[in-house]
Amino acid sequence: MAADGRPHDEPHHPSLGRRLNWLRAAVLGANDGVVSTAGLVIGVAGATASHAALLTAGLAGLLAGSMSMAVGEYVSVSSQRDSERAALRLEQRELDETPEAELDELTGLYEAKGLPAAMAREVAEHLTARDPLAAHADAELKIDPQELTSAWHAAGASFVSFTVGSLLPLTVILLVPASYRVALTAAAVLATLWFTGTASARLGGAPVKRAVLRNVLGGALAMAATYAVGTALGSAGI
Question: Where in the cell is it found (predicted)?
């Protein structure tokens, strides 16, 4: 029990779920960066031993991938935020035009959640007196008007996480000797995929072994496929 008599495991911060979603997105972004850049540079390594070619391909893949992720996330979150704002505007208009009907609706929502009719009405009246839009946004729309996702934050997080993930295979393949670069890069990538698979599974409450196996096998297949193509093209002199 805390000093005020409440259990220590009482309510988490209201933005905890949002923070976990951000963290999960960052892990997945880094995972994408690792796999896509590893596949690219290992494919190039199969075709040529040129350090310049690896650097050029790796940096091009890193920048293209991180920008693509950032733009895609910006567009996606902007669309979601526009929809949320439109829903909030509609709700506010309904509150202004038909407040009694909206109070009845809110009461019905709390009754549907299991509250007795009298208690549901009392809760609805109390929350409506405090902040009617916030009450309806939470119960009806599942939106917190004060915590709409920032498209710029989402884009920045995607850019950074993808870049960080991409730097691992690119750094390894550029620094190790040519005779070991593919094997060591693949080993480093698979170890990283094991870590990101474990992290994403635990954040999402999913079975860890299945997530890790799926992640590692997917990365291994991607690297094997691009290396095979690169080797074939290199052998053909293309």
Answer: Endomembrane system
